[in-house]
Amino acid sequence: MSDPAVGQAGQAAGGLVIFLNGTSSSGKSSIARELTAVLDGPSFHMPVDAFHAMRSGPEMTPDQLGVVLKRTWLGFHRAVAGMAAAGNTVIVDHVLSEPWRLRDCLALFSPQDVVLVGVRCPLPELERRERARGDRPAGLAARQFDRVHAHGVYDIECDSGSSSPAECARQIKDFLRRRPAPTAFERMAGSIPA
Question: What amino acid positions are annotated as catalytic residues?
């Protein structure tokens, strides 16, 4: 019996990347957990925070840390691309606060297989959540607020300030049933400057 996830010549059929982009504390991880519960098939939640948490090592200077952080993001993107290329549904929570991150993802992912979700939340609510969770540098969400959505193109957006994570997950699931083409990644491919 042939494996439906494997196409001709043993090549894996492409999977789906549900790409949640928003500031720190916008609710991406909570939405991702709800999505894994409501999607029809198996899926993998791949948060960038998990990759940062895997890192060990001594204290570093800010310059050294910057290099290591960038390598971590680059590795994370490649891990996501690999999981999707193997035919998996991958839910990514990400912060596109630096233009190079989007350029790297556009170069790596099959653009027709990415659903780019803008996770919006009003700044006062982000700041309240940031204070309540206590595990993020003060002002992080505010610093990311204008940059994270600067590219301006999404397949679907949700407002985690007025909708619960479960409601956002249901909106995304409903959108997946009627996904129009071209995708946001297809529309941006080749248009983001190097």
Answer: 49
